[in-house]
Design a protein that fits this description.
By secondary structure, this protein is α+β, with helices and mostly antiparallel strands. The protein has a domain of 128 residues: Reverse transcriptase/Diguanylate cyclase domain (Alpha-Beta Plaits, 2-Layer Sandwich), CATH 3.30.70.270. Helix content is 53%, strand content 16%. The protein is built from 8 helices and 5 strands. A 5-stranded mixed beta sheet has the order 2-3-1-4-5, sandwiched between helices. A hairpin with a 3-residue loop joins strand 2 and strand 3. Helix 4 runs antiparallel to helix 8, helix 5 crosses helix 6 and helix 5 packs across helix 7. The longest helix is centred in the middle third of the chain and has 19 residues. The protein is globular.
Length: 212
């Protein structure tokens, strides 16, 4: 049985001067993720080392969309993410600190790799028998990450709401702008292309792990 482990750290967290506000916001974001995605999580997300967090995902194919939604709801906090897909060698427990195995090891390796790069914020590590799939995923993220890094705050707002509501007019009402303005923000963020690539990765992971 294969699982997904996501290990992440907040980008430029050491530059944040108001540490109390940062930890409050960070904790609220983690609580939101754990509550909203409780049905999908193998292990709830947990903060450790002050600016890092880690958790487990049951349905591997949903990882790309799950990661995107977390990013959209974490903003203005942004993070690097290492995703490890593999086995768990211990009993599954509620505390991620009490489990171990291949998926955690690969996730940590992925985060260490991504910490050395400036224009990437996502990296997947898979067992050696899935090396071709790993290469495909990481090549796609060379575009996806550049897209995310270059988004403006207005684009983040439009993308987050549009993913949820799937309706330009409803998003426009929520943001108090015209629907043409929302459409312009989504086009500038290359949302359609991003979404199509995300769907492709979901299908690709489904091909490999549908009988997981």
């Amino acid at each position: 049985m294969k699982y997904g482990i996501l290990t992440a750290d907040i980008i430029r967290s050491k530059e944040i001067t108001d540490r109390n506000l940062f930890f409050k916001l960070f904790s609220e974001k983690i609580s939101y993720v754990n509550k909203r995605f409780s049905f999908l999580l193998l292990v709830p997300f947990k903060i450790y080392r002050g600016d890092e967090f880690q958790g487990g995902i049951k349905e591997i194919n949903k990882t790309p969309e799950f990661l995107s939604i977390i990013r959209e709801n974490f903003y203005p906090l942004q993070f690097r993410a290492g995703i490890g897909i593999g086995s768990i060698s211990t009993k599954i427990k509620r505390d991620i600190g009490e489990i171990n195995g291949e998926a955690l090891r690969l996730s940590s390796q992925a985060l260490n790799i991504i910490k050395k790069e400036r224009e990437r914020i996502t990296y997947y590590k898979l067992p050696s028998e899935y090396r071709s799939l790993e290469e495909i995923i990481n090549n796609f993220y060379t575009f996806l990450d550049l897209n995310v890094i270059n988004r403006t705050s207005k684009q983040w707002d439009a993308i987050r709401l549009y993913r949820d509501k799937k309706n330009l007019k409803k998003v426009a009402t929520k943001l108090n702008v015209t629907f043409q303005n929302v459409s312009k923000r989504l086009r500038a963020a290359h949302w359609l292309q991003y979404y199509q690539l995300e769907r492709f990765l979901i299908k690709k992971l489904e091909e490999y792990f549908s009988h997981n």
